[in-house]
Predict the 3D structure of the following.
Amino acid sequence: MDNEITLSFIAKSENEALARMVMSSFIAAIDPTIEELSEFKTVISEAVTNAIVHGYEEDGTGKIEIHARREDREIVVSIVDYGRGIRDVNQAREPLFTTKPDEERSGMGFTIMESFSDDVEIYSIPNRGTTVTITKRFVPIQETSRIV
Amino acid sequence: MHHEVEKVGDEIIIIRLKGELDHHSTQEIRDEIVPMIKNGTIKVLVWNLKDLNFMDSSGIGLILGRMRELAPIDGQTIIVNPSETMRKIFQFAGLSPYICSDSEIDIMSKLGGIVYGQ
């Protein structure tokens, strides 16, 4: 294992930016492309927002943990909450499905997480919490062409 | 998030988003724009994302929400200058047709013809 961190914070929306910032710093060592970094930040943002909005209904007291590890150019991140859980995980994954249309949640969270990563696993128990584990493999750094 | 909201005449609002747009920062923008739309004269919303460094699906919710409010009066939504990642997110949500490659100035001059020429 190359590196590993755990981050724990209160489920407040202002911490969404903090989670993105910490995770961006965590992957800086593998020198991602601008596109990869931007997609990775989006994935983190979607998962953390889900935990705040759905897991804890924005109660501002629940705890969210992020466990991240890096092995070579593969990052595995788990976003953990101890909130209300997801009753039907398959339904939650469906594009445009949302339990909160009134709050203008687009229902695109899991679609974006799946599109911008290599694997998304959801483990959830109603009233116990949800763990979303995301795997993203970053492309190898291109060797710079030799000047002749 | 220090966005700019500019009303051009009675019918156009230009929203220049800056910094990062997420679930936390959408609330503030929504609170500012919704009363302007409810006013009744607005027909076009231009979202300029040139200075926006980050957007997640909260941005989709924000834009779709305003499109719904404009729908009864056949209002128009125009998105300019999205990043590559934002472009993909708009595509997932079916919003690609609303992305315009013209500059804000070109759009305004075209809109001048459409909106005021009726």
About this structure: The longest helix of chain A spans residues 34-55. The mean pLDDT of chain A is 93. The domain at 3-137 of chain A is CATH 3.30.565.10 (Heat Shock Protein 90). Chain A has one domain: 3-137.
